[in-house]
Amino acid sequence: MSHRLLVLGWHNIEPTWAFGGTSPAAGRRGFERQVRFLRRWANVVPLRAALVDLLDGRALPPRAVALTFDDGYRDNVTTAAPLLRAAGLHATFFLVPGFLSGTSEVWWENLGWAFAHATAAELSWEGERFDTSTPDVRRRVMEVVVRKVKTLDSRDRENAVVDVAQRLLPVGPTRGPGRQFMDWDEADRLVEYGHDIGSHTCSHPILSREEPADQARELVDSREQLEAHFQRPVDVFAFPNGRAEDYSEVTLRLIREAGYTFAVTTRTALAHRDTPAREVPRVLVNAETGVVKIGRSGVRTVRRILAPGNRTAVNRVPIGFGRDRGPSPEGWEHPVSGGGSLERSIPPLLHRAFHPPVPRAHQLGSLPSLWLRDLRGRQTHNGNPMGYGGRGWPGAGKDANSGAAPGLDDSSPGTP
Predict the structure, then answer these.
(1) What is the DSSP string of 111-142?
(2) Is residue 292 part of a domain?
(3) How many separate domains does the chain show?
């Protein structure tokens, strides 16, 4: 059992104007690979139920992972939710009522469309000149502009996006950004599939840039609209943008007063029993993030947690990573020295069983105890989206992955 939780976060599956990617098909294939990987190697748990147990000091299954999606992109319900349902995996979808209703502008997608269809060879903005003559440089300039406008409040950001778009002289088909996002009827299918709904504000402002009264209205109105439509409590919140500078102590107080029990950020770490309930960390990924990269992100997170500020300990990883040299006297090995490489060890790590972690590694909540314990039996609790009942985790010790999930071919190329 474990006292740590990895929360993963996605936005879209297929590429959008703002979130690039190889192709829609590549996004779908990539997400299907991720689902197969999670079903086989992780114990996917409902976010809220896992947080209740974790913060109350009760143990989670080994390799506990919670899945989340932000913003309500339409491919969440057309692609992600059916794949998750077929695999018996549960997720929490953080929705924005203004996007569901089509009443709020999706500023980053508007900006992405303008850059993708720009005809101006140069952008002059805020006293700077940017080359926009090719798609590659336009993508890089867009990232610069996005970082700048994120520092503004909602009104100034909207004006800045309109200004930049006009200067880019975009030419292309008129498109409604709202159809990149699900509507209320489509969102109902998420609940039908057995998933949870969370709040992501009413119109997606970056809260720390707004006045307290505006923050409170976004928090309260979003929760009330979601609860009224779905006829179920909504007390889990996801911060828009979610970095440390995107919310404040005032924001945290307002979240509590608005009735939210939990809130998730985009600050990279593992959640544990001492994690503040309204500052739960997450690791953001996209549909084309390879499972090896996800593993590396988890390892780096574990290193920071186990030894903050300790350069020697940061270069230590638990048994089972790197070269199989057997345990050191402390129960650790040092693959960084002597030619071993943690990064080179990740692919074989995901394809074969290693020695179980030694007790010290397990007690520290290391990645092997989180994801890679009991690999020979692949003992997970997946396969039933309602299988988690809290306290004791029914299904422990059962191999729920003895057969392929409906709609997923575990023997197809690319299966971890």
Answers:
(1) HHHHHHTB--SEEEETTEEEE-SSHHHHHHHH
(2) yes
(3) 2
